[in-house]
Amino acid sequence: MAWDYVNFQNDMGELTQIAKLLLSVILAAHILVKKQEPVVCLSWLLGVALFPALTAICYLGFGMNPFERYAARKRASKHLAGLKRPRKSTEEIAETNRSLMAKKGFVGFDRTAMWVSMLQGQTLQDGNNITPLVNSTNAFRAMKEAIADAKEYIIFQFYQIQVDEIGISFLDELAKKAEQGVKVYVLFDALGSHRIKNTFIADYRKRGIKMHRFLEVHPIKRRFQINWRNHRKLVICDGKQALTGGFNIGSMYLEGPDPQRAKWFDVIFKVQGPIIADLISLFAEDWHFTTGKSLPSEILDGRHDLRANACESDGLSQIVASGPSENNAPFYSSLISILHEARQRVWIMTPYFVPDKELLHAMRMAVVRGVHVRLIVPKHSNHPITDTCAHSYFSEIHQYGVELLRYVHGVCHGKMVLADDDVVLAGSSNCDYRSFFLNFETDVFIRDRALAMDVAKILRDVSQDCIRLAPKDVSNLRIGRLLFRRIMRLFAPLM
């Protein structure tokens, strides 16, 4: 009997090894077929070689792409929700953009402006007022004032709404407006706001709020992907004003007792003008994708009036809508184009910095041309593993000549790019793989000298609360820390 038991154990061991080998081969074959990006492909294959079982679990949750059908549904939502606008021809876009920029006296960034417009199929828009609001006191006050003034409808979309004093106070304000007859639409990401329970949603629906999760995580329905999250932050009230940027809703996003030394630094942009029509279209598409229903015709039809009623403005702007259902990675490709066309400076603020090879190359080439490239990141963000991955790039970009500043008072969560004297690209996108290729994001490309001056002042002020990366910070690292950072860098496409 003992001998039979030993033989049984040996047979089971051999079967386990065969199963592991078979799993590795199948997994590797699937990765080679489905992952076209070499770095991403190699990262997964390395995981298969080193930790086949763990990698299989991670690949099921992170890597497999069921989104072909989701992407088809997302694109179909533009048609089904009545959102499809005729795309302007390349010649019309080029001629109109050239005329608008000449009229405003803007020089340079012709290719970037053309690229942004081509991605959206529309020309740059005149007649928008866009104002940056720094930190939670200003941002949350502006949101609540807009909500209080709303008479017809409120759109409230965020990646994360925390179930705490701040989050509940906003939802209570929205519920009061719904009880007054205002149409209130709340959309939040299922993963980012995972603490929101069904009973919580039901309570606010009873109070009149139309409230839904975006792309619910549901293993039984094959929705246990944590990629393709909706990272947008958006408030729209009656089409008269909108707010979009980096803020989520919750107590952790408060700047703390000293606004000059904010423990959470962030920026949101107040928008007035015809560009709000495009923000409404963007939300309507997300809403239809989530619920299968269109927004009321009075909201969608009102976009035509918005486009006709321009404000006085010295600038031009264009929504940059990114997402895995979009081609050409709009935010990412726009950032690369800005780096290639800049002549004086490119200042980037991002809470998470996980670049790819092309972005690093663009930053290096900008420095070689004499452009002042400055990167502002938090010394410590709210995601330590991402920080470790980011640190692995610091030595490289420091050698390129990029000025790296690290915010010391807390988390610097603003997401802005300033180029030369009149270009701003800002919104919800981080400088990492998720924002570049996996998340749904909303950013705004802006040509405006006055706004660029305001953004430059914000970035200069923040720079006073930063420490500059010195050579000693990236040299003579202990071998263990260096190895750990390099290992984390292998998983950069997952960050």
Short précis:
The protein has 495 residues and is an alpha/beta fold. Helices cover 49% and strands 18% of the residues. It has a nine-stranded mixed β-sheet with strand order 1-10-17-16-15-11-12-13-18, with helices on both faces. Strands 2-9-7-6-3-4-5 form a seven-stranded mixed β-sheet, sandwiched between helices.
Give a verbal description of the structure.
This protein is α/β, with parallel strands linked by helices and 495 residues long. The protein folds into 3 domains: 2-64, no CATH class; 68-96 and 128-315, Endonuclease Chain A (Endonuclease, Chain A); 330-494, Endonuclease, Chain A, CATH 3.30.870.10. Helix content is 49%, strand content 18%. It is built from 18 helices and 18 strands. It has helices at 2-34, 38-50, 52-63, 67-80, 90-104, 110-120, 135-149, 165-179, 198-206, 276-291, 297-308, 330-341, 357-368, 384-400, 433-438, 449-463, 471-474, 479-490; strands at residues 125-126, 129-134, 153-158, 183-189, 210-214, 234-237, 241-245, 264-265, 267-272, 316-322, 345-349, 372-378, 403-407, 411-412, 416-419, 423-427, 441-447, 466-468. Strands 1-10-17-16-15-11-12-13-18 form a 9-stranded mixed sheet, sandwiched between helices. Strands 2-9-7-6-3-4-5 form a 7-stranded mixed sheet, with helices on both faces. A two-stranded parallel sheet has the order 8-14. β4 (183-189), α9 (198-206) and β5 form a beta-alpha-beta unit. The protein is globular. The model has no long low-confidence stretch (mean pLDDT 86).
